[in-house]
Amino acid sequence: MDKEKELREKILKLTKQYYETALQPKQYKKGDRIPYSGRVFDEGELVSLIDSSLDFWLTAGRYHEQFEKSLASWWGLKFCTFSNSGSSANLLALTAFTSRALGKNALKKGDEVITTAAGFPTTVNPIYQNGCTPVFLDTEVGTYNIDCTLLEEAIGKNTKAIMIAHTLGNPFNLDKITKFAKKHGLFLIEDCCDALGATWDNKKTGTFGEIATTSFYPAHHITTGEGGATLTSNAILHKAIESFRDWGRDCWCPPGKADTCNKRFKWQLGTLPFGYDHKYIYSNIGYNLKATDMQAAIGVAQLQKLPSFIEARKKNFEWYMKNLQEYEQYFIFPKKEAKANPSPFGFILTVKEDAPFSRNDIVQFLEKKSISTRMLFGGNLTRQPAYINAPKRIVGELAGADTIMNNSFWIGVYPGLNNEMLEYISGAFAEFIKSKK
């Protein structure tokens, strides 16, 4: 055994010992804050991270390649592009449709993209960032997904795409959306940042549209710290996504590689001279949205745990459905479509209008009890300061989005919750309801 290999094995063995000594999850004590989500890991992630750091290959390397291939294979898609966040993944997804490689079908400034009013900003921001106009449809209370009854009314002469999320891991109606998209020739981007592992009619969400996105922020199903991915089975879109992620370059060589095309100095593109170095030819106006190999190393270890994470989330979600059901007179409980099998991101409740308390009343009570809560992200986004004066088209009254903005909140279902925490949460609900009767 050479010295380098021997030292690496010693370091990784000590890394396991360090995890066991310093990073074991702390035992929950009543009164400790119960987060809405958080990282769940063991020595596997730490060993993988340290192993990557010992290479000191700070950009995309062996773990990056493994993570992209493994995630694409798990999803059943051909291509995966790892980026520095789920928000960047969304930006790359929509921007890919502006590529000149799509010819006359490419998105242009002024084109419209259908989305829904209640959700996270970075599902909508790429529409603005590409000079397009969002068409906001209402959001259903219960499923918290787009109101499909408004789809036909939303179509205009410049409508070219649909970009919506499977809210909190609950699939939107993919039968209706895909039929509508096909009828009108629209691109479909499925934002699966909260929905890794959700299915529709036994088929994974993210495989119905042209592009899927996901996020690896610590709150999500798996984490790389910061990180996200854009996936597709379309080779033209995949090349565009990678180009926009990597400065807009035409070259597809990975970091540290050269002349993958075997004609590095034999290209003539634009009005550049023949033979200009292909590594410095730019076919798109792009960004630098790459992630590091160390982030990918964590992702490789996390991906192995994904099935158990999904099952834990489903189990916790069902626990709430069963143990909070007695309060149905006060809350609208989560609903799903018949073909939907959610991969829950959270457990959402909407306080009914005739309840003897408000959303703020119960949220403040739970927070004082050290139970973390969250709103449904930005609520009605059209009421947010950033969007009030921004160009947009609104279909309908957005009454559902307003109800969600005023009355909805959610609590965690992540795998770090245990029975003692769930019982404490249930007890807090009972105490609050009793005080309001």
Supply the key terms.
437 residues; alpha/beta; Aspartate Aminotransferase, domain 2; Aspartate Aminotransferase, domain 1; 2 domains; eight-stranded mixed beta sheet; three-stranded antiparallel beta sheet; 13 helices; 13% strand; flat
Provide an overview of this structure.
The chain has 437 residues and is an alpha/beta fold. The protein has 2 domains: 50-302, Type I PLP-dependent aspartate aminotransferase-like (Major domain) (Aspartate Aminotransferase, domain 2); 306-436, Aspartate Aminotransferase, domain 1 (Alpha-Beta Complex). It contains 13 helices and 14 strands. The chain has helices at 3-23, 43-55, 62-75, 86-96, 121-129, 151-154, 174-184, 235-245, 293-303, 306-323, 359-368, 399-407, 419-436, and strands at residues 79-83, 112-116, 133-137, 159-165, 187-191, 199-200, 203-204, 211-215, 228-232, 331-332, 340-341, 346-351, 393-394, 408-412. The strands form 3 sheets. An 8-stranded mixed sheet has the order 1-9-8-5-4-2-3-13, with helices on both faces. A 3-stranded antiparallel sheet has the order 7-6-11, with no helix packed on it. The protein has a 3-stranded antiparallel sheet with strand order 10-12-14.
